[in-house]
């Protein structure tokens, strides 16, 4: 049992980190950098202090791990809440072509780079490939919004493709982690393909079943329940009730053999079809801003400083592949329909890998070295840092130059 003094120290640290998160977020946004860069650095700094004995070890790990899990649920809940499936279905033709080329090529290049070029094991290469397929649309969208370009045709296409990326990456992540135990056993045994096929079929049945339950809840229960909570109290209480239900759905999904991430994503989708629930999202933002940084802090906390030299070499190669994969796979289809400037803009906007990519790597790292080793994990954190800095800088430069040229004309 922890002593009162240790509790005081941990409460002091948590409060200090919350304040530091806000300062980092404000400072980095002033220079057009995503806050997650700072959150990762905060976590890495805490890990270094822990290694030299400057902060309590196990109790801090337990508290920050819980806060990190809560941050994971908040992150994926918001991704689901902001996914407009109805709008996607109406604009699917062009976006689906760009998405399919982008999704398949990014995954294939990620696997080829990890397995053939870097010599990583098959399982680690599959995890890296899955992380490569994701896109962090929030990192680039902020730049588009600041320049008043999000409502342009290119901006709308970007949102559609990125939403498809998010959905497909979450589903692929769920399938991958359902297959990993069989892949672990089959890596050294013959005849494991039928077992994987059975596991895939079983997973798809479970996913369809869980998705159906979520649809029924969304179709017949959600609006009445949201209206009930809205009648009880004024904002932000109704949104807090919705967030609580989202946490419950996430936990139930984990019990059913999925993960907190999948459950949180589906919970967001449940409420995304209700305009009233989405309008209340502004009430959710303080909760999101409080919890989501801890997910990235925990990732930084789990980076082993002793592997940074090896990880840097891996990270450079993977970061280069990550940039090329999105520029080529998202840019080329757009090039043939909208021209070179649109292709480069959308390709660069799709480069950042953050939330979902890090969810994939964090879940794989939690399984142990047989799934992802410490150097590979740290290397993919480097990929996140590089892509989340480089992508927005290129997009900002292009959008600013485009606005300047428009004013000159």
Automatic annotation (TrEMBL):
Major place of residence: membrane
Pfam families for the chain: Na_H_Exchanger
One cellular-component annotation, GO: membrane
The UniProt record lists the keyword Calcium: no
Domain Cation/H+ exchanger transmembrane positions: 22-399
Listed InterPro entries: Cation/H_exchanger_TM (IPR006153), Na+/solute_symporter_sf (IPR038770)
Compartment(s) where it occurs, according to its Swiss-Prot or TrEMBL record: Membrane
Coiled coil: none
One biological process term in Gene Ontology: proton transmembrane transport
Keywords carried by this UniProt record: Antiport, Ion transport, Membrane, Sodium, Sodium transport, Transmembrane, Transmembrane helix, Transport
GO molecular function, one term: antiporter activity
Recorded topology in the membrane: Multi-pass membrane protein
Segments passing through the bilayer: 6-24, 36-57, 63-81, 97-117, 123-145, 157-180, 200-218, 239-271, 283-303, 310-336, 370-395
Highest rank taxon of the organism: Bacteria
The protein's name: Cation:proton antiporter
Organism, scientific name: Desulfatitalea alkaliphila
